[in-house]
Amino acid sequence: MPILVMKFGGTSVADLDRIANAAEKVKREVERGYDVIVIVSAMAGKTNELVKWVNETSGFYDAREYDAVVASGENVTAGLMALRLQEMGVSARSWQGWQVPINTTSQHGSARFVSIPREHIDAKFAEGFRVAVVAGFQGVSAEGRITTLGRGGSDTTAVAFAAAFDAERCDIYTDVDGVYTTDPRITSKARKLDKISYEEMLELASLGAKVLQTRSVELAMRYKVRLRVLSSFDETDETSGTLVCDEEEIMESKVVSGVAYSRDEAKITLFTIDDRPGIAAAIFGPLADAGVNVDMIVQNISEKDYDEAHSGAVTDMTFSCPVDQVKLAKKAMEEAKAAGKIAYDELIVDTDVSKVSVVGIGMRSHAGVAAKMFKALSAENVNIKVISTSEIKISVLIDRKYMELAVQTLHDAFELEKSV
Amino acid sequence: MPILVMKFGGTSVADLDRIANAAEKVKREVERGYDVIVIVSAMAGKTNELVKWVNETSGFYDAREYDAVVASGENVTAGLMALRLQEMGVSARSWQGWQVPINTTSQHGSARFVSIPREHIDAKFAEGFRVAVVAGFQGVSAEGRITTLGRGGSDTTAVAFAAAFDAERCDIYTDVDGVYTTDPRITSKARKLDKISYEEMLELASLGAKVLQTRSVELAMRYKVRLRVLSSFDETDETSGTLVCDEEEIMESKVVSGVAYSRDEAKITLFTIDDRPGIAAAIFGPLADAGVNVDMIVQNISEKDYDEAHSGAVTDMTFSCPVDQVKLAKKAMEEAKAAGKIAYDELIVDTDVSKVSVVGIGMRSHAGVAAKMFKALSAENVNIKVISTSEIKISVLIDRKYMELAVQTLHDAFELEKSV
Fold first, then answer.
1. How far, in Å, CA of A222 to CA of B134, rounded?
2. pTM for the full predicted model
3. At residue B56, what are phi and psi to the nearest 5 degrees?
4. CATH of segment(s) B249-420
5. Shortest distance, CA B143 to any CA of chain A (angstroms)
6. In chain A, what are the domain boundaries?
7. B80–A62 C-beta distance less than 8 A
8. What is the ipTM of this complex?
């Protein structure tokens, strides 16, 4: 029988009623003829409770024990879901990570998949079981210790199972009904996409449309797993939600698919640094060590092209990071300067910026997207502070007060309210 | 290094403070030179929550899934306890049932031990770990499914580990500070026993002094595991609590060690039944099938020794059971009568009785205990309705209103307030 993977996140299994609701959706797919692998998260709030206990028990905790405690939340949901399905007449069995086994590396808290042997679950399907309910977010190391994949790892578990079992599709049930051209809270013209390519989804996810975990989309892209995002709170059918798939499968293709944003960005500029080989490493090494998530980086020739205080060419370096990491970043730079590893005249922080991006696979073959974007923003007097581009994305840093305006303007400019 | 097993029940690990308190006691034993195996229950209330969820999810639940859900409570405690010990500088590792592995039968919900291989835990001790924190109450079946031993199974886990690891002792930390000559709520003269034999403990446990699970005492007796009951809320040292041990180890031996009681008993009498071979089976078979825990049984010749309605000899049959099983028992008897399997003229129920017992290993070699007991009760005008005896116990069924009086009277009569 064809296999379908269905994943339910924490809010979708937050209580017994919601577990029952999710089970109904599983039952419907069984009736359509699928053998189903269900991946479940912990009931909403449970993981936080466990994490809190761990933190209160131990300052610098042992990640092995953290994992052993925290993974228990998913086990409870898996058992309850299997029971609910049985109660509805569907033959189901729960699976914890070690039972499958979901073999992972030993990096506790952020383990990666090594292998997911099909043998045991296939044997149960062969016995006539129709559903395997698998505890998401966890696995087992070669040492026989419970591992976790990090928060949100249940999406990744779902995709990994879809790949391992050659599933027809991997349906991610969540609290939104799909992927939108932009945030509907910013413009009512935002439109749900029927399909989106892996590449676009990756750019949208990492830019703040937090529907799917980035890692799960990467994995889906690598193994060509067709991923569907849909709501666990609506009535759903085979056409609901948004399908994240290979671009080959997307017939109609707009140049731009969506407008993403990230509200709380900061821009940090180091003025008058030595323009020498290795200077980028000297700056961004300490930032990475300090745990700063540097996003955009722009290096530009300093206005003061040659400075008496410096022996060679000088330059300025600008980068962006989340606002709440500014202190970390400043400290890392000041320490590097004090240690003589880098030299700069001044460090200027602007904490009132946001990032707005247009994303679209069609950019690859269409010129003029950047020009159109800049023109539209200019027409609204939105000043662009930093620009960075990739093959399918153009991002700009602007003053935060213009963020909503910019998103609305770009959504209009690229006519995203229209389907094709 | 010598091995000590320490077990902490649900109230002893009810929250993070109590887990920390228990960890202190473990640390002290490590400092005394023991390698310690700690058996933990779920945090008080957690198992009930999980059981409630299972019951609300599924009417006739699958015991495999019940076990998978319910066992997770102990896993959380095990991880937290290991973290707490690490925080205190004690090298500890948590162990779930399947990791040890604790091999059990497949009787989910009431599994029995098959084997507890020492290999993995011994290897950790050899590496320098000083504490293995084991999730109690659970195991793993040959099919790789999680099993549970039934409520209270953590005591049994502790004893099984003590046997498997040749532990010097198995300390059961609970919310009482030991085993008493009788319930201190009934008489302030009740005295804590320093030592008690397995046999006496078994009689006391099954009679209502619910300090230790009967099964754990049976197991301790079979493997000669020295069992100590002590309070997790008091300061404790090597002499605290009560040691349950082989009678050889008990130097001073009183004839009677304790007075036990069971308040809510019922007495059921079937009048005028055929006195034929197989009649006991015909009566107690249906009662067992209905789940009635029959305790005392007395068969006596009917006053109406020969009855016209019966073709042969007749008799009366009296038995006791918990009050809340009277309905079940009546129904089972009436159905058996209707089906023609048994015949009786009348079924009389007395729901206002209690059982009081004196227990003591010394009875084996001392005559006159029964006579002394009956005389003491008679002096207080307590009427005895049913008597049953075993090698080390004499039990009587009396009107409930006399229960406290009877316990106090017997405690005085056998001078239990005095040690030896």
1. 40
2. 0.81
3. -75, -25
4. 3.30.2130.10
5. 10
6. 3-175, 249-420
7. no
8. 0.76
